[in-house]
Hints:
The protein is of the alpha/beta class. Helices cover about 35% and strands about 15% of the residues. The strands form three sheets. Strands 2-8-7-6-5-3-4 form a seven-stranded mixed sheet, sandwiched between helices. α3 (about 60-70) packs parallel to α8. The relative contact order is 0.16.
Amino acid sequence: MSEYLSKSCKNLTPYVPGEQPRERKYLKLNTNESPFPPSPSVIEAAADAARNLNLYSDPECLSLREKMAARYGIGPENVVMGNGSDEILYFAFKAFADADRPLVFPDVTYGFYPVFADVNGIPYEEIPVGPDFEIDPDDYLVKGKTVVIANPNAPTGRFLPLCEIERIAAFDPERVVIIDEAYVDFGGESAVRLTKKYKNLFVTGTFSKSRSLAGGRLGFGIACKELIEDVNTVRFSFNPYNVNSMTAAAGAAALSDDGYYAKNCRMIMENREYTAEKLEKLGFRVIPSKTNFLFVESNAVDGLTLYRELKKRKILVRHFTSPRTANFNRITVGTLRQMEILLETVRKILEELK
C-alpha cells in the first residue's frame, strides 16, 4: 500500500477471486465455469466482430437488448447489459442504496456484496442464514432497506421459491429488491416475469455460467423501464462502452443457440445429482443445490485439509475461511469424467487419512 492511497480506500477488503492457474495441469473445479465451450456459432460471431475493433462498441447494446427482450418476453427498455453481472450489481448498489437506504443480504452469500457496499460507503446488515444455510424470507420483510438475495444462493446452492421472492418484493414497494440469478438456469425459476408486476424488483443474470461465456464478461439487468433508466444514469457516468463488440456479438449468437446450452445445463444437472449421491455415500454432507456446484463437508476430514490434499493431486476446489463455512468446500460440477476423477481422488484421500 502506498502513501498515495485515498483514505476512503485504505480500509477496503477486496474480493478474492478463485485461483486461475496458468498451468493447464489442474482439473479446475473452483470457479463455477462451464466445462463446455461456447457453441461454434458464438465463436464465429465473436471472430467476425473482431474485424471492426477499430470502432467503438454500441453503448446502447441495442441489437443484444432486442434479442434479450425477445428471449424473456419483455421490451428492450427493460434490459441493461454489462461487463458481467458483477458490474450490473455494482451499478444497482450505487443506484438504489445509500446511507438512507442501507443494504440487507445473507451472511453467507456472494462475497462481492460487502465489497461493493464498502467501496460505495453504503451501510449494510448481514442476516444469518439457518443451520442448513437456508434463507428465511421473513428476515427480508423490512421497510426502507434495499434487499439483495442471490437466488440460487452462492456458495450454498440453495434456492428460494418464486412465491417467497414475490412476498419480499410486495412487502415494501418503496424500496428495491435485487435478485441475483447467476445460477438460475441449473434448476431454479427466474423472477424475471415478476418485474412486470413489481416496479421495485431488479433481476440480474450472467452469460458466464449456463452460456459458457465467463471469459467474455457479459451480464444483464432486467426491471421496469424506470429502474433501468436509473442504472443507465450510473453506467453512462462510469463507462458507456462497457460491453465490447466481440462480447455483444457472442451474446447475441448464444441467445440463438438455446438448444445447445439447454442440453449442456441438463448434463450439468445430471452430473450434479450423480456427484451428490456418490459424495453422500462417502459420508459427506451435501447442501441441496440448484446451481452448477455443490457445497459439501465431511466429518472425516476438515475443509482446509481436503482442499489442500486435492490441490496436491492437481484438483482445484474452492475453500472459504469464514467461521461458518470453513469446514466446507465448493465443488464446480464438470463433465461426468471430471466428476469421476474427483470422486476417485476423494476416496483415496479418505482412505489415506484413516
